Amino acid sequence: IDEYVIVRAIKDIVPGEEILINYVNPQLFDERTYKLSSQWNFNCNCSLCVYEKTVFNLMNMYGVNPDKFNL
Asked: Higher pLDDT residue, 63 or 23?
């Protein structure tokens, strides 16, 4: 039996465009980055991770608890 995956997109996908998925909950920044690093030895630098890392670092710098915002 052939195996296949059906992917439904929320936007048009152009030929050659990369399709990305999250392997862990995207709403848990700390957990996601820890799991990616510790389990797969992978440090993600996608635009979402870079943005969240910047926001997370700024919140920590100004003493804002990121847990209140589900980041």
From this structure: 63
